[in-house]
Automatic annotation (TrEMBL), chain A:
This is ER lumen protein-retaining receptor. The gene is LOC112287141. The chain crosses the membrane at residues 12-34, 54-77, 98-115, 121-140, 152-170, 182-202. InterPro entries: ER_ret_rcpt. It is found in: Endoplasmic reticulum membrane. The lineage of its organism: Eukaryota, Viridiplantae, Streptophyta, Embryophyta, Bryophyta.
Length: 215, 10
């Protein structure tokens, strides 16, 4: 475990905390894409299939349980909670799941390290995580003003990606570890998706303005 | 060659 990986995990955790804060205290999920949240729940469900069979560390197990539990509870809140679901911006959150899920699954069937159920699903989760933010970014573009918590939520998610990529580069040079090029590609695509958002995030921060993404 | 895509990450 290096500092980049740990910082990445913590910013990932922060993004979830920010989102839960919004849902629990303000009882609002305005500006949050249910599509993206459902995709993340699917990402964690397919990636952590080995959670009870392969033990890595207590840290890993606990974090996996947190990511699984929070992602499914967020989906539950947005769909079922009597107040929270009313704030869901359904009309603007129109991106279709299967445009992302289907290509990712087909790609995982073709490009994987081993053709086994678990390996294919693990690869699928990587591909899907890379693009799962897209419905959220589309929704941000359609929103007139992005509130602080939503902006910070996406910021922390992007930061998590950035730190993970640095961690990969670090591990590449310091450990006897390598990754398949498909893993690198998925990781780079995922991080690159945030570049545009970061530009406008810092711009609004610098100018002390409300965050707004050009359509 | 053993496959190596790290699964110790989250």
């Amino acid at each position: 475990m290096n500092i980049f990986r740990l910082t990445g995990d913590l910013t990932h955790l922060m993004s979830i905390i920010v989102l839960l804060l919004k849902i629990h205290t303000i009882k609002s999920c305005a500006g949050i894409s249910l599509k993206t949240q459902e995709l993340y729940a699917l990402v964690f469900a397919t990636r952590y299939l080995d959670i009870f069979t392969t033990y890595i560390s207590l840290y890993n197990t606990v974090m996996k349980l947190i990511f699984l539990g929070t992602s499914f509870s967020i989906v539950w809140y947005m769909r079922r909670h009597k107040t929270v679901r009313l704030s869901y911006d359904k009309n603007n959150d129109t991106f279709r799941h299967y445009f992302l899920v289907l290509p990712c699954f087909l790609l995982a069937l073709v490009l994987n390290n081993r053709f086994t159920v678990r390996e294919v699903l693990w690869t699928f989760s990587l591909y899907l995580e890379a693009v799962a933010i897209i419905p959220q970014l589309v929704l941000l573009q359609r929103s007139k003003n992005v509130d602080n918590l939503t902006g910070n939520y996406v910021f922390f998610l992007g930061a998590y990606r950035g730190f993970y990529l640095i961690n990969w580069i670090y591990r590449y040079f310091t450990e006897n570890h390598y990754r398949r090029w498909i893993t690198w590609m998925a990781g780079i695509v995922q991080t690159a998706l945030y570049v545009d958002f970061f530009y406008y995030y810092f711009k609004s921060w610098k100018n002390n303005e409300k965050l707004k993404l050009p359509a | 060659v053993e496959e190596n895509d790290t699964k110790d990450e989250l």
